């Protein structure tokens, strides 16, 4: 733009936008990237309180009636654009192989009533936990710690770094152009998975890999944590 041409330097949230300006003819020495981030200090402090205390995690599972059930986690506003309905539909598809699978949903928003109705229709009322908005990291931390993956079906933003901060592989839509700039943190097959946008079967398949391949999940988990903290 005309204004950009007058600037001494251009600063972008991500490399995708920066590269577009460079390709359009801007001097690359005037283009800089400062990746958007969140303060990991409270996340890492909360994680440290749990990571080496399996007895505390077992106590939380018992308190919440989880038993040994695998857990998938979503944390954000309940907006239709975030497509949490796809996560619930994927859970329904996974129910035969994982009858105890729990989806934990932290957040509030206008889509909650529709999502609750969908869970009821799929017979998942007892296994989709609507936990409401939680702003205290110490209170939300155990839900991250008992989860296998962080699933944000579409429109992901800074939440990707929240999930990765706890070492959770992230699963989200491969339609990158419809995501927020923070999507650059996700490297498919390295610290999480992309699934075909809007494809519930593919979403369920990617989640099933994380639920069954523990060695792969461990590698993705380590890489996710490194992405957020390093």
Description:
With 230 residues, the protein is of the alpha/beta class. 44% of the residues lie in helices and 14% in strands. The protein is built from ten helices and eight strands. It has helices at residues 2-6, 15-23, 41-51, 54-63, 84-94, 112-121, 137-145, 159-165, 200-212, 214-229; strands at 10-12, 31-33, 71-75, 102-106, 128-132, 149-151, 170-173, 192-195. Helix 5 packs across helix 9. The longest helix is centred in the last third of the chain and has 16 residues, at 214-229. The radius of gyration is 19 Å and the shape is globular. The mean pLDDT is 94.
Instruction: Tell how many strands the DSSP assignment holds.
Output: 8
Roughly what is the average pLDDT, rounded to an integer? 94
* Amount of helix: 40-55%
- Low-pLDDT runs: none
Task: Give the SSE order as H and E letters.
Answer: HEHEHHEHEHEHEHEEHH
The helix/strand class is alpha/beta
In terms of DSSP E residues, the strand content is 5-15%
Major sheet description: 6 strands, parallel
Q: Write down the overall geometry.
A: globular
Radius of gyration: 19 Å
Distance between the termini: 34 Å
Number of helices: 10
| Main sheet strand line-up | 5-4-3-6-7-8
